[in-house]
Amino acid sequence: MKAISPLVVAYVAAAQSLYTTPVLLGAVSDSLGLRADQVGLMITIELLAFAAAGLLLAPRLDRLPRGRIVILAALGVGIANVASGAIDTLGALTVARAFAGISLGCLLATTSAEIAHFADAEARYARCMMVALAFGCVGIFIIPEAARRFGHAGSYGYIAAVVVLLVPFMRGWPPQPPPQDAQRGDLRSLYPLFAFVVLLFFSDGLVYPFAERIGRALDMDRALDLILALSLGVGLFGALAAERLGGRFGNVRPLLVGAWGTALSGLAVVCATGPVSFALGASAKNLTMFFLFPFLLGAAAVRDPSGRGAAAVTGVVPLGIAIGPFVGGMLVERWGFPVLGWVGVALVAVATPFAVRLLRPTR
Q1: For every residue of the chain, which 3-state class applies, written as one string?
Q2: What is the spatial distance between Cα 197 and Cα 72, in angstroms, rounded to a whole number?
Q3: How far apart are the C-alpha atoms of 32 and 133, rounded to whole Å?
């Protein structure tokens, strides 16, 4: 457990702003009076920077000092969030969020690559996610209150404080083997997985970032923060199920089950008519998303034990999500929220054949 602790801490730090995206989006929208398409474009730029950093770093991670990268990237996340809280113009805030994205991309890619070296990578990813989800649930409670008191400065300030306070616990990174000792897989064998990931997380990025706005549209102001926190907490059971299941049924079949579950749950969220249907849809979405994610990273780890594949996947994930808020913002402005769910289901249908191509023995 001692060897995994810095990895858990680094994963928690990397995931905080991702898991609390809906309330962060709501806080900056209300504080600066932004439209859905404006804040969607800002988040898209942040996620594109996240993706670019992860993808550029991934092929080199078996040769770079990963422990040092994690510390510097976490400090970068903290600085970017402090700067974001101090800015009150959309253009400058977008630049600060791009810097946050670069730092997050480096932090998550490096952490994911390290976890991929373990034989039980799926279970370890799941444990990291469970701890990160617990922190995320707390954040969903705190961020809206911080926003009510201090505007978006309070929201981004909370994220900065959490990440910076975690930095001292990232010391003691596992020893790094010499590059020639690493088992390098062929990253080209992961191209179908990358295509699947882009389409899957494009689908997710259409719905999840707008969950807070959907709840407000349903006049759920009083109960919304509680519902979002509890629904994120349900994701713990999805990650726990993934940990228990491990690699018994391979990576791809559980991945497909989770992908279709999250797409149909997203449709339920955008078509919700009240608190009960919204809560059920949001809970099911988090349950299935955090069930599938360990298998997603596990599929990459199996095909490239050096960790480069898992790092690349963490870069491809935000590339998919990045498209969602911008496209979703435009769709919402024209047709309303329900169209997001239908487009999301269609994207998973297109993605499915790419995952099916991976259904062959890898161990």
Answers
A1: CCCCHHHHHHHHHHHHHHHCHHHHHHHHHHHHCCCHHHHHHHHHHHHHHHHHHHHHHHHHCCCCCHHHHHHHHHHHHHHHHHHHHHCCCHHHHHHHHHHHHHHHHHHHHHHHHHHCCCCCHHHHHHHHHHHHHHHHHHHHHHHHHHHHHHCHHHHHHHHHHHHHHHHHHHCCCCCCCCHHHCCCCCHHHHHHHHHHHHHHHHHHHHHHHHHHHHHHHCCCHHHHHHHHHHHHHHHHHHHHHHHHHCCCCCCHHHHHHHHHHHHHHHHHHHCCCCHHHHHHHHHHHHHHHHHHHHHHHHHHHHHCCCCHHHHHHHHHHHHHHHHHHHHHHHHHHHHCCHHHHHHHHHHHHHHHHHHHCCCCCCC
A2: 27
A3: 28
**46 closest CA partner among 322, 315, 317, 326:** 322
Q: How far apart are the first and last CA of the chain?
A: 25
Query: Tokens for 254?
Result: 């559980």
| pTM of full prediction above 0.70 | yes
Reported as a single tens digit per residue, the pLDDT across 264-323 is 998 998 888 888 888 898 899 889 988 988 888 878 877 777 777 788 888 888 887 777
Entry field: residues in the chain: 363
User: What is the C-alpha separation between 363 and 360, in angstroms, rounded?
Assistant: 9
In the structure encoding, which two tokens stand for residue 282, read together?
Answer: 């949001």
Domains detected in the chain: 5-170+185-356 (1.20.1250.20)
pLDDT tens digits, one per residue of 121-159: 778 888 888 888 888 888 888 888 888 889 889 999 999
Output the six-digit token pair for 126.
């799941």
